[in-house]
Amino acid sequence: QVQLQESGPGLVKPSQTLSLTCTVSGGSISSGGYYWSWIRQHPGKGLEWIGYIYYSGSTYYNPSLKSRVTISVDTSKNQFSLKLSSVTAADTAVYYCARVDDCSAFDIWGQGTMVTVSS
Amino acid sequence: SYVLTQPPSVSVAPGKTARITCGGNNIGSKSVHWYQQKPGQAPVLVVYDDTDRPSGIPERLSGSNSGDTATLTVSRVEAGDEADYYCQVWDESSDQVVFGGGTKLTVL
User: Fold this and answer.
1) I want to staple B47 with a disulfide (CB 3.0 to 4.6 A). Which of A2, B19, B34, B108 is the partner?
2) Do B54 and A107 touch (CB under 8 A)?
3) What angle do CA B77, B79, B81 make, to 5 degrees?
């Protein structure tokens, strides 16, 4: 059974880069057939898609975040990562990683990790 | 960009049927997915590709999609169905995922 787990700092200073990693267990990222995604949720708000990546490195990003976002994959570690640059308080949110199936549904989610942007 | 519109809240008595709508321009031509999110938990996929249910999701939850409206129907509502529900599509015209704003289902 595939499971996803987010990890990374829970506190990031303004103007710095937020970095998170999602570790996939119970299955291989490089087996193909799925995209791997990041989604965030501001406190008390709805879901916001950040972007996703295929094991080959092909990416899609939310246009509203594209200039600040990089999603990368490390198949040797069975992980994929998120970098969000120049963060502000508006980037404070719970960040989820998720698997995307072949009809673009997010079928497996990590538990989420809260990231606060504050000095 | 493509917009999905959901009612902020829906209330229903136990045992009754709740219908949560998701409006979008010609959404019937897209594949719609629905998620259930309970407080403090990650979302869970409950309907994918308009009408299909992942294993473990009860038949009481069902989906439909036609014209400009997709609908998630929760039959014989139970207290445990109280949650936020989100619809989602892939917008091929802009190559991006779009979520609806979410609907809070309250069981009276």
Assistant:
1) B34
2) yes
3) 60
**pLDDT category, A58, cuts 50, 70, 90?**
very high
How far are the Cα atoms of A84, B9, B98 from residue A92, in angstroms, in the given order? 11, 25, 20
First to last CA, chain B: 36
Please state, in angstroms and rounded to a whole number, the distance separating the CA atoms of residues B85 and B72. Answer: 9
pLDDT, tens digit (0-9, with 9 covering 90-100), for A63-116: 999 999 999 999 999 999 999 999 999 999 999 999 999 889 999 999 999 999
A 85-104 → B contacts, CB under 8 A:
96, 101, 103-104
Residues in chain B with pLDDT values less than 50: none
Contacts B43 to A, Cβ<8 Å: 47, 96, 106, 109
The DSSP call for residue A45 is S
d(CA B79, CA A110): 25
3-state DSSP call for residue A84? strand
Q: Please list the residues that pair with A38 across neighbouring strands.
A: A51, A97
User: Where would I find the beta strands (DSSP E) of A3-119?
Assistant: 3-7, 11-12, 18-25, 35-41, 47-53, 59-61, 69-74, 79-84, 93-100, 106-109, 113-117
Instruction: Look at the block and give the residue holding tokens 């989602």.
Output: B88
Question: What is the pLDDT at residue B78?
Answer: 97
Using alpha carbons, select from B26, B24, B14, B16 the residue that is nearest to residue B80. Answer: B14
Cβ atoms of B62 and B75 within 8 Å: the answer is yes
At A37, list the tokens: 């995604």
